[in-house]
């Protein structure tokens, strides 16, 4: 008796996940024709049911004491934003820093993207209810005001948004430190004196080593990154993609390298290896490839597996913490067939279980369901649900 | 690295490859697959596995093959290198609804041309025992999913048993069943039977004996695969928590463990002499662990994605003749016997009895080079040679020769552990019902050998630490204390302490052990590879799409007779290969001779309605289907 109930519940859970994804696809299929690409949000009572169902699934007493699972309402193609916000919210160190910022914020009158983000995180974290929905209206409005690229109802690239958000927040913090308020979209505070907490969390360094094939001199240059963008190949792992990122490249012909020792252009070998491993490693899979013939981006739905635990192989010899162990904490997933056509959702790990955030809908998923987001092993299909940005958090 | 780029091109699927023993060729006509090839949609995620059994009939093709594709299970006559059997005429074919087959295993003792016993595990947790030859109604276990609801990941008959088997699940549990016992109408209640570091064993708390006989809870997260040592005594279990754990199956003691570099371990295989284990997993690596020394001896890098199957090739190992003959005073006849066992059984489930005097992982054979293979989700097939210089490398050998001195320090730190564990294992086995005098001598001698080495390097130790190992020195100390505490507290360590394992012999740093490159690394399929088996005259691979391929060993493609010996070609020693058919024939005759088949069959004829949605369609006989559905 007991077992039957449980098994049907498990089945239902799985079907919800899929039917939801299917709906998303259907929405795009319908609206794709007219190029009016809206993530349809029907404010039906579903979300209420959903919230209570989630509570039931997890079991109210099993819900972690200080955790809140709030779906984010879509304001017309803002799923790129919602998915990234959820992923960042469940990168615990990031959330904690944002909430700290909120605490220490003294009557700051000026509204910035950071204050909006802090208000949003704060209001989720201080909800009485454990599950529900939230409208990130203020944040979206602010975002659209700040950056004209996002000031429309078009589908945007989640990675571009993540990049913008992290850089912007860092800028604002830097400006805060220096005591002068940033002007709208200003580039002040470029003289980076001290790293902000955004850099503390996300920034790593890679060493760009170039070896002149004529004089054998190796010159290396360090560069900082907030996330790593890696090329993807069919039926590979993220580990392999990272290795590809660091594979040796020969600069020749047109791309010859100007060697300071030889004082001339020479053939050279170049490779990039990670020197400082960040606390949160954000990996962006380059799944959108520009096709010149078609004059648009096409999606590479390749199956790229990503483990729950990760160490890097492509570290430089002088790396200070080369064998840092990472745990997967969040994944932003792209659903659909191309960059401008599709939907973003995210899966996050919280207190030992996995949750799926699809705008305002929150579902508990089994960790074995993650394999549904690796991609497609056959090249025939383009429409897929694939991991797009992976967030790995360092264990120590 | 050259090997890596070779497998590169997308459409460049290889149909042959060359090693030092010659050219291996794909036998295009020997392909087994679904009779009706439907366009592959990539939807099915259950790995395609193949099981083989020699039914020992008088024909030229005594072997049978069973493989699963999606929701179907096929059973054919396997013709080896010859043209495959007519695919439209399977001996048996089954179609399941609601639950898919994930793994299967033939009983290698209870077999005749008229009857075989095949265990099948399913995605929803159920287990079925069928006979694809007689097609008698099978038996179902965990049918109502009262015992475990999660997917079956691995199923195997207990070595030497005709009625007991082990099943592992995604839930992280393994169960021992006796097929003659019922599963009971209620969920089982368990009581603790044995407990150790990271595992516990439970028995059923009921008046009457029922299934499961035992429940093993091992590690955290799914158990991905398990394997009995060729000597039958040890059980290796690998799981999603990244651990390989080796148990003495009878005493239920944990005798050793290792940790992946990162991520889950997906597959495991024992060397033919039970001395080494190779595992593959989510770190894209193959890792070789020495059972005697309880340490990782090398890793192999070549795959571009997760490694799904690893297997030793028992027919392509190089054996040192001299050491074999010098072993004479060491109970030679028995050793040879064991060697034959191991060679014959290979990576498949073994068939020798669990006679404890035979079941020692000792060094009677002196294999100097081990060959093993691996296949992965990257569609690549790799072959690796585990050579003597790697095996004999001291702990902590680095690839750069400059660091040899520091390697010695590492050797020092790890020796106490292997010694202690070896002694511990001895005391354990001595205390329980297995008088392992041989093992005692052997493990001690190994300990001494390495011990000698340790004292030699002691003098250098301090300087080296000062010079080069500043950072490591600190962690070295902590590691040592860590190890001591581990030993004292009976191996109590937490899984989330796995970071602390880094730098120990359970999980050395990348630079601490040799990193092998594959001997052969070829893309041989357009789909993920899911099966790898080494046979006397061929290698078998299978992919997710449902194609089982046979690769002829060098010189075999011309269609030679079956039981020939591979001609020796290696520089010293040569390759050995022993035909197993006769031996297993005798064994089977012995084990089944005094018990008529018909009796056994009648005993198992318990037909039951299949409530978990298994509708056993059978194209071959409708009669059977009817009987099962009633």
Automatic annotation (TrEMBL), chain A:
Keywords: Hydrolase, Protease, Thiol protease, Ubl conjugation pathway. The keyword Protease applies. Its EC number is 3.4.19.12. The keyword Coiled coil does not apply. Pfam families: UCH. One of its GO terms (biological process) is regulation of macromolecule metabolic process. It catalyses: Thiol-dependent hydrolysis of ester, thioester, amide, peptide and isopeptide bonds formed by the C-terminal Gly of ubiquitin (a 76-residue protein attached to proteins as an intracellular targeting signal). GO terms for molecular function: cysteine-type deubiquitinase activity. Residues 70-395 form the USP domain. It is an enzyme of class 3 (hydrolase). One of its GO terms (cellular component) is nucleus. Belongs to the peptidase C19 family. This is Ubiquitin carboxyl-terminal hydrolase. It comes from Pinctada imbricata (Atlantic pearl-oyster). The lineage of its organism: Eukaryota, Metazoa, Spiralia, Lophotrochozoa, Mollusca.
TrEMBL record, chain B:
The lineage of its organism: Eukaryota, Metazoa, Spiralia, Lophotrochozoa, Mollusca. Pfam families: WD40. The keyword Repeat applies. This is WD repeat-containing protein 20. Keywords: Repeat, WD repeat. The keyword Cytoplasm does not apply. Gene3D superfamilies: YVTN repeat-like/Quinoprotein amine dehydrogenase. WD repeats lie at residues 258-290.
């Amino acid at each position: 008796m007991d077992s039957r109930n449980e098994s049907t519940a498990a089945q239902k859970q799985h079907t919800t996940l899929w039917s939801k994804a299917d709906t998303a696809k259907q929405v795009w299929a319908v609206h794709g024709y007219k190029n009016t690409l809206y993530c349809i949000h029907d404010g039906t009572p579903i979300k209420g049911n959903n919230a209570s169902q989630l509570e039931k699934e997890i079991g109210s007493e099993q819900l972690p004491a200080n955790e809140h699972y709030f779906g984010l309402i879509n304001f017309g193609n803002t799923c790129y934003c919602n998915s990234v916000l959820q992923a960042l919210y469940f990168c615990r160190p990031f959330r904690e820093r944002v909430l700290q910022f909120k605490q220490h914020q003294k009557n700051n009158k000026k509204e910035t993207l950071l204050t909006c983000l802090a208000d949003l995180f704060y209001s989720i974290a201080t909800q009485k209810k454990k599950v529900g929905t939230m409208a990130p209206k203020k944040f979206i409005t602010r975002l659209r005001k700040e950056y004209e690229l996002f000031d429309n109802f078009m589908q945007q690239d989640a990675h571009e948004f993540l990049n913008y958000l992290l850089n912007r927040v860092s800028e604002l913090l830097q400006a805060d430190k220096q005591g002068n308020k940033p002007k709208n979209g200003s580039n002040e505070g470029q003289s980076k004196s001290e790293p902000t907490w955004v850099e503390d969390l996300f920034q790593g360094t890679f060493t760009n080593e170039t070896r002149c094939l004529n004089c054998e001199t190796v010159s290396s240059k360090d560069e900082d990154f907030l996330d790593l963008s890696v090329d993807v190949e069919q039926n590979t792992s993220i580990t392999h993609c990272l290795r590809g990122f660091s594979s040796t490249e020969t600069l020749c012909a047109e791309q010859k390298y100007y060697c300071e020792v030889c004082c001339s252009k020479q053939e050279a070998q170049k490779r990039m290896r990670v020197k400082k491993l960040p606390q949160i490693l954000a990996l962006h899979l380059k799944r959108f490839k520009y096709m010149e013939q078609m004059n648009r981006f096409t999606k590479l739905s390749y199956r790229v597996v990503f483990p729950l635990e990760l160490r890097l192989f492509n570290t430089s010899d002088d790396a200070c913490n080369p064998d840092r162990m990472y745990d997967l904490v969040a994944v932003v997933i792209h659903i659909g067939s191309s960059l401008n056509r599709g939907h973003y959702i995210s899966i996050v790990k919280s207190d030992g279980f996995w949750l799926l955030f699809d705008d305002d809908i929150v579902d508990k998923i089994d960790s074995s369901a993650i394999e549904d987001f690796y991609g497609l092993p056959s090249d025939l299909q383009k429409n897929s649900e694939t991991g797009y940005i992976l967030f790995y958090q360092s264990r120590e | 690295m050259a090997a890596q780029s070779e497998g590169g091109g997308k459409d460049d699927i290889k149909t042959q490859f060359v090693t030092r023993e010659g050219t291996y060729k794909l036998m295009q006509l020997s392909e087994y697959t679904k009779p009706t090839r439907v366009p592959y949609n990539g939807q099915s995620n259950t790995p395609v596995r193949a099981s083989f059994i020699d039914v020992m009939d008088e024909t030229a093709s005594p072997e049978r093959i069973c493989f699963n594709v999606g929701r179907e299970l096929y059973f054919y006559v396997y013709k080896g290198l010859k043209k495959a059997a007519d695919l439209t005429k399977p001996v048996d074919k089954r179609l399941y609804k609601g639950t898919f087959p994930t793994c299967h295993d033939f009983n290698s003792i209870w077999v005749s041309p008229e009857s075989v016993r095949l265990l099948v595990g399913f995605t929803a947790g159920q287990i079925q025992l069928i006979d694809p030859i007689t097609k008698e109604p099978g038996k179902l276990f965990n049918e109502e999913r009262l015992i475990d609801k999660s997917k079956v990941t691995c199923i195997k008959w207990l070595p030497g048993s005709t009625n007991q088997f082990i099943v592992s699940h995604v839930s992280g549990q393994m169960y021992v069943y006796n097929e003659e016992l019922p599963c009971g109408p209620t969920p089982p209640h368990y009581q603790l039977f044995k407990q150790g570091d990271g595992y516990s064993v439970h028995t059923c708390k009921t008046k009457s004996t029922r299934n499961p006989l035992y429940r093993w809870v091992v590690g955290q997260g799914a158990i991905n695969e398990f394997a009995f040592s060729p000597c039958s005594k040890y059980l290796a279990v690998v799981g999603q928590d990244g651990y390989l754990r080796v148990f003495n199956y009878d005493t239920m003691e944990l005798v050793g463990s290792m940790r992946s570099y990162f991520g889950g371990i997906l597959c495991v295989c024992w060397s033919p002499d039970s001395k080494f284990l190779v595992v593959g997993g989510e770190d894209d690596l193959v890792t070789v662990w020495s059972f005697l020394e309880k340490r990782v001896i090398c890793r192999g890098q070549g795959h571009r994605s997760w490694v799904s199957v690893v297997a030793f090739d028992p027919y392509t190992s190089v054996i040192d003749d001299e050491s074999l003959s010098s072993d004479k005073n060491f109970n030679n006849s028995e050793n040879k016997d064991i060697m034959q066992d191991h060679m014959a059984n290979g990576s498949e489930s073994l068939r020798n009895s669990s006679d404890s005097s035979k079941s020692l992982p000792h060094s009677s054979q002196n294999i100097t080079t081990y060959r093993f293979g691996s296949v992965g989700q990257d569609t690549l097939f790799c072959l690796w040679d585990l050579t003597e210089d790697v095996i004999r490398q001291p702990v902590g050998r680095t690839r750069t020769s400059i660091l040899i001195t520091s390697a010695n320090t590492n050797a020092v730190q790890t020796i106490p552990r292997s010694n202690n564990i070896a002694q511990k294992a001895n005391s354990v086995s001595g205390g329980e019902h297995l008088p392992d005098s041989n093992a005692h001598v052997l493990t001690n001698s190994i300990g001494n050998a390495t011990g000698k080495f340790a004292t030699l390097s002691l003098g250098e130790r301090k300087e080296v630490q000062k010079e080069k190992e500043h950072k490591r020195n600190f962690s070295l100390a902590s590691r040592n204390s860590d190890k001591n505490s581990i030993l004292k507290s009976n191996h109590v360590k937490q899984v989330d302490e796995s970071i602390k394992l880094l730098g120990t012999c359970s999980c050395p740093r990348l630079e601490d052990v040799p990193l092998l490159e594959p001997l052969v690394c070829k893309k041989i399929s357009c789909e993920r590879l899911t099966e790898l088996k080494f046979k006397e005259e061929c290698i078998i691979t299978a992919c997710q799409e449902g194609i089982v391929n046979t690769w002829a060993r060098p010189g075999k493609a011309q269609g030679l007779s079956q039981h020939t010996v591979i001609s020796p070609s290696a520089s010293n020693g040569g390759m050995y290969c022993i035909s197993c058919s006769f031996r297993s024939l005798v064994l089977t005759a012995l084990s089944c001779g005094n018990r008529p088949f018909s009796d056994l069959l009648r005993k198992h004829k318990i037909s039951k309605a299949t409530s978990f949605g298994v509708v056993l369609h059978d194209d071959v006989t409708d009669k059977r289907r009817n009987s099962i559905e009633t």
